[in-house]
Each structure stands twice: as C-alpha cells, then as structure tokens.
Amino acid sequence: MSGLMAWFWNEDVWLPPGYTWYYLTHSTHFNFPKFLDIWTYPFAIAVAFVILRYLILNPFLFYPLARAIGIKNSRPRPPPHDNVLEAVFKQYRTRPSPEALTNAASAMGWEERQVERWLRQRVATIRTSPRTKFCNLAWETTYYISYSILGLYVLWDKTWLWDIDYCFIGFPEHSVDDCVWVYYMVSLGYYWCMTITHFFEYRRKDSNQLFVHHLLTILLISFSWAVNFVRIGTLVLIVHECGDIPMLVAKICKLCGFNRGMDGFFLVFLLLWLSTRVGLYPFWIMRTTLFRAHVILQMWYPVYYIFNGLLLLLLFIHIMWTYLILRIVVRMLIYKEISDVRSSSDASDEDEADAAKKEA
User: Fold this and answer.
1) What is the tens place of the pLDDT at every residue in 87-101?
2) In whole angstroms, how far apart are CA 14 and each of 174, 227, 292?
3) What's the helix, strand, coil split of the chain in %, to 5?
C-alpha cells in the first residue's frame, strides 16, 4: 500500500518542479493543507448533516411548516395488484416497448391503453409526496443560503477574490487559514452527505447526472486540497453554490401554489445561472486556469492537465443542464408553464406528462 500511494502521489505529477511533499508539509513559514483532514473531518460533518436533516429539521421544522402551509403528504391509491403488470412495471416503468405492451395487454385481456393507465397509476404510488419534496427543497435551500453567506464572509477580504491572479502568484506556498479550512471541510462534508443519501432517496430523472456531479465535486475539492489549489477552489465553490437558491425557492413556491413567486424566482435563477455557471465559471475561472496559470507560474506540469480536465467535465455538465433549463424557458413561453427538468423532479412526473400528451 505504501508503494502504491508513493506511485500515485508522485511529486513529478502533483507538485511544481523543485518542490517535495516533505518540504511543503514541514515548512514553518506557511500552512500547507493537511491531507488527512479531507479523510476525517468531512465524514464527521456528513454524519452531522444527516442527523441535522433527518432527526432535527425534518420532524421539528420542515414537516410542521409544510403541514401548516397545507402541503399534503398523501399518495394516490395503488391499482389492483397483478404479477404480469408488476413485471412490466419493474422493467419498463411507464415506457414499455411496443412488444411488451402488446403481450401484457393480451395476457390481461385488456386494451393497450388500459395497461398504460395501470402503469401510470402504479408509478404514482411510489413517487415522492409533495410534503417530502418540500422538506428536501427546504433542506437544500437552508444549506445553500447558509453556505453562500459563509463564502462571502470567508472570501470578502481575500486578495484572490478581487484579483484572480493571486490564486497562482506565490503558489504553492499559500497558507490556508482557519476560515478557509472550515469553508472547504463544510462543502466536502455536504457532498459526501448528499452522495451517501443519494442511494436512499427516490430516483429522479437526472439522478445519474447529479451523482456524477457530486463525485466530480468531491474529486475536485479533495485533489485541490491535496496540492493546495485551495484559492481557485474557493472561487469555484462560491460561483457554484449561490446559483441554485432561486430555483429551489421557485420550486417551493410551486408546491405552495404561489405561481407569481415561482415565475419571479425562476427568472432570477435563469439570470444568476447564466451569469455564474455559463459566465463567470468558464470566462473568469477556467480562462485563468487554462490560459493564465502557466504564464504566472512560468512552468507546466502534469497536474495542470488533470485539474483542467476535471473542470472541463464540470463545464460539460453545466452545458447539459443549461440546455434543459432553456427547454423550461421555451415551454414557459409556448405553454405558459414551468416544469422542473433539471434537478429535483421525479422521473414519474415526466413519465406521466409524456403519457398524458400521448392520450391527448
């Protein structure tokens, strides 16, 4: 194991020429990030988040609030049980192949339309209830608002927030102060929490993208911490974590039936998303990492390609989500409606909508 770790953390790959792990971790004139911190504290924070969410906020704040607002916790009555249709449901959900649909209808002595209706009723019984959706949205909103405020507090007086070149001037001999340490550990703990709970929550239509996004974020945070790309990492975090707040609030407004508020917050979200994820991230942060970092450092080394590759992959996910968001805009302009196609709709919602269009 020691040999494998030494091979993986090869100084020629991860560090600028002339630096060693021993020098960086034992220097007294600056505080280099401690590698073991990202394998201890974030998991404790993740456990604390799970306890805070499911044992404190959900039962004592979010559920009572949802009940007071009038958000229901009921689900539709399940259709009559049938083994043939259950097998079709487990394999196809509400989108069986034409052959499977025909075979199921023949076995039941039904019309194909009746089979499709049974499948829609069946999937409606397992989707997330409105009250559970509210609690999930309230938790994410609480975290992102709190973390964005923390980010502004931590970075407001940092030189690299106002001049991004200082992310690389003097690198890698950058000290990590206590506030930045907390900012990093909290974010890593949250994404570990969301990754772990991902397996216990109802599957959404973008679950795979979200899971990849969480893992990619964990990789970026962990590797940037290990080699002290912490300054650029804090900028990536502050640009990303504020963008989802208006969308989350818009979804809460939708659950509460406050359509005017939903439209307003969605517009704020659209402007903020385009200005941060499609604006600041590629044209401020990635422009610096791709075209300025090596000029400031006056050197190239392999980690440059590793991190830029991960950042480009994150940008690709943003482009995919931006396409889905623009679909919302088109749908809103044409059909005068907003439906969530990016981050928290259930797959069943989309299935039912598609099926309804077919019947219409």
Assistant:
1) 888 887 767 888 888
2) 16, 7, 19
3) 75, 0, 25
* Residue 264 dihedral angles phi and psi, to the nearest 5°: -65, -45
In the chain, pLDDT over 70 holds for what percent of residues?
A: 90
Q: What is the pLDDT of residues 36-47, one digit of tens each?
A: 999 999 999 999
Residue type, 350: E
**Rounded distance, CA 343 to CA 205, Å?**
8
**Range 273-281, long-range pairs (CB < 8 A, 24+ positions):** 273/243, 273/247, 273/322, 273/325, 274/322, 276/239, 276/240, 276/242, 276/243, 277/239, 277/240, 277/243, 277/318, 277/321, 277/322, 278/318, 278/319, 278/322, 280/239, 281/236, 281/239, 281/240, 281/315, 281/318
d(CA 262, CA 255): 9
pTM, two decimal places: 0.84
